[in-house]
Amino acid sequence: VTVDGVVKIDIAGARTEFYEYPAAKPQVEESTLKQDLFRRDFTVNAMALSLNYETKGLLIDYYNGREDLYHKKIRVLHTLSFVEDPTRILRALRFAGRYGFTIDDETAELARKAVADGALQKLSRRRLWHEIYLILQESNAYDMLEAAADYGIWKYLFPHAPFQPHLEEEFEMIPRYMAFFGNMVRKPNICLLRFLLIVFPMEREDLEEFFEDVQLQRSFREAAIMLQNVFYRND
Asked: Contact at 8 Å (CB) between 144 and 100?
């Protein structure tokens, strides 16, 4: 990572992790490099380069991540990956959408099965919201949200605001909304405006419950309430 022209490097030893129960925070222990890479989310993120003098630059790829990268495939490393950490499902959709990758058929099947088996019920709305928040910052956020709805994820975060296909058109119109939102929201950004379009139809009681569950940041909370107040006052 480069910060103000200075290269900063994080160094950590090889680790492995295990989950006491599905969706729990992992317990971490020291391990071999192969075990460390095996705990990654997808094969394309499970490669390493040797820094040893004798083998400097050697690609270490135990799980065929290079081949998946070449074929633009998102693939998990083991069958319990989404059970252990269901947020990886949303991450897979985000990576696929951002880089133009496709999700491997077996990986997609495992993701859908994890959702159908209730893996997301073990996650807090706060953790789900964090993943959606990251998606809202992407250039093609609508496609990712649509995929999340298709996988059955949307209802766990917004049970009172079903996914609406018309969001695609509204997302595209955001530049035209800038002046309107700018009168209410200090320094509106595209992530916030997309969020407002999603939650605007929600009943106030459901909206307050959402705020509490995800511990929503103050600027988003105030903007959502202000938008509803302005609309209903002028309705």
From this structure: no
Q: What is the per-residue pLDDT across 42-64, written as a single tens digit (0 to 9) for each?
A: 999 999 988 888 899 999 999 99
DSSP, res 164: -
pLDDT digits (tens, 9 = 90+) for 191-226: 888 998 899 889 999 999 999 999 998 888 988 888
What is the Cα–Cα distance from 125 to 62, expressed in whole angstroms? 35
Take residue 132 and report the two structure tokens written for it.
């959606």
Separation CA 155–CA 161 (nearest Å): 8
Q: What distances in angstroms separate CA 213 from CA 13, 73, 191, 229, one per listed residue? A: 35, 34, 19, 22
Under DSSP, is residue 101 helix (H, G, I), strand (E, B) or coil?
Answer: coil
Whole-number Å distance between alpha carbons of 220 and 226: 10
CB within 8 A of 137, min separation 6: which ones? 190, 191
User: What are the structure tokens assigned to 54, written together?
Assistant: 């004798």
Place of tokens 């071999």: 32
Tally Cβ neighbours within 10 Å of residue 184. Answer: 14
Measuring CA to CA, how many Å separate 215 from each of 47, 126, 227? 35, 7, 19
Other Cβ atoms within 10 Å of 144 Cβ, number:
23
pTM for the model: 0.82
CB 20 within 8 A of CB 28: no
Amino acid at the residue 14: A
What is the C-alpha R_g of the chain?
21
Token duo for residue 185:
């929201």
Could you tell me if 59 and 47 are in contact, meaning their C-beta atoms sit under 8 angstroms apart?
yes
**Helix, strand, coil share (%) of the chain residues, nearest 5:** 55, 10, 35
